[in-house]
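=== RUN LOG ===
request id: a7f3
mode: sequence -> structure
chains: 1
length: 491
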Amino acid sequence: MAKKQKIFKPKARIPRGLRDMQGPELAFQKLMLAKISDVYESYGFDALDTSAFEYADALGKFLPDDDRPNEGVFSFEDDDGQWLSMRYDLTAPLARFVAEHYDRLPKPFRRYQWGSVFRNEKPGPGRFRQFLQIDADTVGAGGSQADAEMCLMAADCMQTLGMSGDQFSVNINNRKILDAILAQLGLDAQADDYDMRRLTILRALDKLDRLGIGGVADLLGDGRKDESGDYTKGAGLDKISIAKLTDFVQAGRDTRSETLKALAEIIGDSEIGVAGLEELTLMDALMQDSGDSICFNPSVVRGLGYYTGPVFEIELNIETEDENGEIARFGSVGGGGRYDDLVKRFKGIEIPATGISIGVSRLAAALTLLGKAETKATQDLVVLLVMDKTRLVETSELVKTLRNEGIRAEMYMGDSGMKAQMRYADNRNARLVVIEGEDELAGGVVTLKDLQLGQQNAQNIKDNEEWRASEHAQTQVSRPDLAKKIKEILS
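=== RESULT ===
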């Protein structure tokens, strides 16, 4: 007798570095997107949605291997032999869009967009390979007033989400000043390996908040081995160069004006450094009424290679316990900067641009831990129990009536009895259940049971006698008055 072939059953598992979300978490993110979008729109930005896939050569980053360009991004080869990549941010697709439709777009072009982005990088605590961002960018504006606007708008977004001025900061630096420091170290901007060496140094500096000054010094030197044993090759700088860079990133002072003076002393008469300092000086003048939440901070670097001028990060200045019970800072929840060369890759001419990106997933997690997540992100739910299946049509019509009145309602769709239906409503975090059994039909009424009030009452009741004497968090109301009564309770 032939052996019965075993049926393959795939293991239900989510890929490493990804996560599932549902219910309140998604509702809160939806609310955050709405609030941030309102801020962006109040500044005059219009919405745009670009594809989640781009031709790999259009991304202009993470592409060291023409045969398989998948370092940093997720890529696959199309049936016509061309490589496609999932977007790693929302800026590179914007540059492609502007270049493709440049002649018909208003200049400057101001857009905002939200969507998931994908990074083929090593995942870790709080670091996912897919996460949600919401960006705003101005393309075609070369003045520092556009950069200052991004920083002011970022601060407005944080305040709109309930953050006070001492709980966050918008930290600003300038890539031109960084390039001046690199020139002082002897890096030749005309050398073939300059872009790669520069990016390696920038990425090392960008890890200051996570690794500390010692870890950054290791990455600027020979390299560093992390706790898992993975080794990251360093930038290969000597001790003098490392000291100059670490001194620079720690040159921030208490006020923007004091930091400008400190930076002026460091850059000397460097032409590109002075140009960067002048841009920060103008931004300072444009942000005079911004308060202390917007700062100049030389430690802000940004790990992406396409920035050409001011760069900024939104940082939460609040400590919490990490997964090991140790005190940790939330760190950056957004950032951006000026990228005047990104569209140039397509058009051949410099088109100035600047933008800000807020990491919605990371910020939502931080706000939740801080107790600032709005749990009432969706309407209260009303569940209508099915007591008699011969009356499904009547119950369905009652649900429609409630929905037409703007009430979030559903009819139970399972096959269980009343107790199981009540458990279902409780598991759904429903606020109210509507019961229409034989007694209610005979009296021309329906019973409304307030599950939230019932839970509150139960916490204060000591014994069965007190329970029988108490109100059971339910009331009866006529069918025509049901919607009105529900609105009264929910209000």
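=== NOTES ===
The longest strand covers residues 310-321.
Residues 445 and 480 are 9 Å apart (CA to CA).
=== END ===
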